[in-house]
Amino acid sequence: MQRILIIATDGYEQSELTEPKRMLEESGAQVTVASLKPGEIRGWDQKDWGTSVAVDCTIREVAVEDYDALLLPGGQMNPDILRMEHKVIELVREFDAAEKPIAAICHAPWLLAEADIIEGRSLTGWPSIRTDLANAGAAVVDEEVVVDGNLITSRKPADIPAFTRALMAALDMAQ
């Protein structure tokens, strides 16, 4: 059974957490949601607050060796808050150093830039962060899903099926 860690906080783009989580769980994966605080985190659903999801553990309790992959949902608020948290950036760097898949969608590639792991690599993201990604040394493309080594990136909620399938393929999961 594949073990996938999702790191998110209040303001995550609802569909970018709930849909990949559902697809992964339906394929037999064990998915853990980690956040900055215990309890629940609230999603952002297009133009207003959405529903909440339960937090399984805090980021301080996460050990990279306990997981096979990292999934980072976007939304504008979520990655902007998370990229200011040293422990989150440290975890992103540790997943990358271990060459484990890191899947980041929408605004979440900001976390990859903050972790300084994208120089010379190809990726995509929401249009408003593409300059940030290029300034951090990435080769930015406008494609549904981009896989470069262990990094898997997508642009927007419409890309979720391809994004999740790419993560599943990286983990050799039946689709």
Describe the overall structure.
The strands form 3 sheets. Strands 6-3-1-7-8-12-11 form a 7-stranded mixed sheet, with helices on both faces. The chain has a 3-stranded mixed sheet with strand order 2-4-5. Strands 9-10 form a two-stranded parallel sheet. The protein has a single domain (3-170), classed as Class I glutamine amidotransferase (GATase) domain (Rossmann fold, 3-Layer(aba) Sandwich). The longest helix has 13 residues, at 14-26. Helix 1 (14-26) crosses helix 6 (160-170). It is of the alpha/beta class. The chain has helices spanning 14-26, 77-82, 86-97, 109-114, 130-135, 160-170, and strands spanning 3-7, 12-13, 30-35, 40-45, 48-54, 57-58, 69-72, 102-105, 122-123, 139-140, 145-148, 151-154. The mean pLDDT is 97.
Brief sketch in words of this structure:
The protein has 175 residues and is α/β, with parallel strands linked by helices. The protein contains six helices and twelve strands.
What does the average pLDDT come to? 97
CATH second-level architecture: 3-Layer(aba) Sandwich
Strand order of the largest sheet: 6-3-1-7-8-12-11
Q: Major sheet: size, sense and barrel closure? A: 7 strands, mixed
CATH superfamily: Class I glutamine amidotransferase (GATase) domain
Write the layout of secondary structure elements.
Layout: E1 3-7, E2 12-13, H1 14-26, E3 30-35, E4 40-45, E5 48-54, E6 57-58, E7 69-72, H2 77-82, H3 86-97, E8 102-105, H4 109-114, E9 122-123, H5 130-135, E10 139-140, E11 145-148, E12 151-154, H6 160-170
Parallel strand pairs: 1-3, 1-7, 2-4, 3-6, 7-8, 8-12, 9-10
Antiparallel strand pairs: 4-5, 11-12
Helix pairs in contact: 1-6
